[in-house]
Amino acid sequence: MRADPPDPGKLLPIAVPPSRRVSLVWSATGLSAIATAMNDRLTLRRPDDWHLHLRDGAMLAGVLPETARHFARAIIMPNLVPPVVTAADAEAYRDRIVAALPAGARFEPLMTLYLTETTDPADVRRAAANAIVRAVKLYPAGATTNSASGVRDLTRVLPVLETMAEIGLPLCVHGEVTDSEVDIFDREAVFLDRVLAPLRDSLPDLRVVMEHVTTGEGIAYVRGEPAATMGATITAHHLIIDRNHILVGGIKPHYYCLPVAKRAIHRAALIDAATSGDPRFFLGTDSAPHTDALKEAACGCAGCFTATNALSCLAEVFDRAGSLDRLEGFASLHGPAFYRLPANEETVTLVRGAPVAYPPKIDTGDGPVTLFDPGFPLHWHVEESTSR
User: Fold this and answer.
1) Measured on CA atoms in the order 110, 116, 117, 123, is the torsion positive or negative?
2) Do 72 and 46 form a contact (C-beta atoms < 8 A)?
3) pTM for this entry
4) Domains of the chain and any CATH numbers
5) Could you read off the pLDDT of 79-96 as tens digits, one per residue?
6) Going by DSSP bridges, is the β-strand pair 49-52/73-76 parallel, antiparallel, or unpaired?
7) Catalytic-residue membership of 186
8) 362 - beta bridge partners?
9) Strands, DSSP E only, in 203-266?
10) What is the arithmetic mean of pLDDT over 180-205?
């Protein structure tokens, strides 16, 4: 006997995860709901990385293919030894990166200058006019790896910053104070009050990227500023770990980075910002390779190496947040818009399936580099790249 169609007003609700869809099927036995995968494939414009460390020499040759495999462009950090401080330095470093690319790779390094108290405003102007550099990087002296040549007195670089505001060249900032009396977990929030807010007040037209933001205070500050002149990068690893992951059950040296991961409440604020669709926030992996010998030491180096699995990690985070539809904006659209560059025409396709087995380490001529482990299975992987 055939069942009568149900009264729509009497149907019971069906709980379905956000990444699934429901097909309602009417048959002789009545109405049934079948949950099927809605987003097992996700195609987006090829992403860019707006904060990347490649190092130099043998390390550069070892880690560059990991980024070039999936990313079209990257803002390259200038904190080499010696640092990249002039247009000539940037050109030479760019040439070394291009020479190290695997055959057939399609990747464009976007160069930056390391801001020092002796940086020449005219050199910065020429470098920007000739598209040699896309940004200048502010490291407070002593803030992170190879930052000893950084700025100690901001007033001494005002002529450079005024030139940058005039020509629209972004300033990328490592947003931490380095005062020894300030707790390491508070250094970003103090930087906002002591350094960034006064700088923005004095040069409101200066375009600023708050790099690797890690706190709720940082997110709130960026959201309160105009999107035309204020952006922020968020790393994959800061969306996944908090300080408990570093310290509980034994010290995890491969989770140690600067800025250091904060409380879980701050990680929640980062996830909310990254998945919000707000164009102020975009991907900067801050993938920072160090050999295991330098990480697993009595005084280990700061940095997480994520170039290999960053897109898989991001897809998991956005999937769990029910925001896969906003991943393209975060990874592929917001960054180019801020840097006044076109979005990439090529695409990549992410596929969800069985957990991906990434290699635990990358071999380089300088020694092995451990890949960031998110601590949970990664079901998303990049399948292909195509042209639109």
Assistant:
1) negative
2) yes
3) 0.89
4) 8-37 (no CATH), 42-387 (3.20.20.140)
5) 999 999 999 999 999 999
6) parallel
7) no
8) 369
9) 208-211, 230-234
10) 96
The predicted model gives 280-302 an average pLDDT of 98
- The tokens describing 45, both together, are 């414009």
Residue in this structure with the two tokens 């709720």, named with its chain if needed: 216
Whether the per-residue pLDDT at 222 is higher than 70: the answer is yes
Give φ, ψ of 347 to 5 degrees: -125, 160
- Strands of 212-344, DSSP E: 230-234, 281-283
Q: Kindly report the number of other CB atoms within 10 A of residue 181's CB atom.
A: 5
Q: Which tokens belong to 353?
A: 């399936």
Would you state the torsion angle of the CA atoms of residues 353, 240, 72, 95, taken in this order, to the nearest 10 degrees? -130
- Are the C-beta atoms of 174 and 140 separated by less than 8 Å? yes
Q: Angle at the Cα of 78 (from 75 to 80), degrees rounded to 5?
A: 140
Rg (CA), the chain: 23
What is the pLDDT at residue 8?
38
Residue 386: its pLDDT value, please?
Answer: 59
- Are the C-beta atoms of 66 and 101 separated by less than 8 Å? no
| Residues constituting the chain | 388
Q: What is the tens place of the pLDDT at every residue in 148-185?
A: 667 888 999 999 999 999 999 999 999 999 999 999 99
Match 């700025």 to its residue by tokens: 151
What pLDDT is stored for residue 148 in this prediction? 63
pLDDT at 140: 83
Structure tokens at 379: 């079901």
Question: How far is residue 381's CA from residue 384's CA, in Å, rounded to a whole number?
Answer: 9
Strand pairing category for 133-138 and 380-387: unpaired
- The more confidently predicted of residues 117 and 34 is 117
Calculate the CA 350 to chain-centre distance: 18
Given 286, 319, 366, 373, which residue is catalytic? 286
Mean pLDDT of the residues in the chain: 90
* Core vs surface per residue 297-334: b (16+ CB within 10 A) or e: eeebbbbbbbbbbbbbbbbbbbbebebbebbbbbbbbb
**Using an 8 Å Cβ cutoff, are 216 and 266 in contact?**
yes
Burial of 250 (0-12, 13-18, 19+ CB in 10 A): exposed
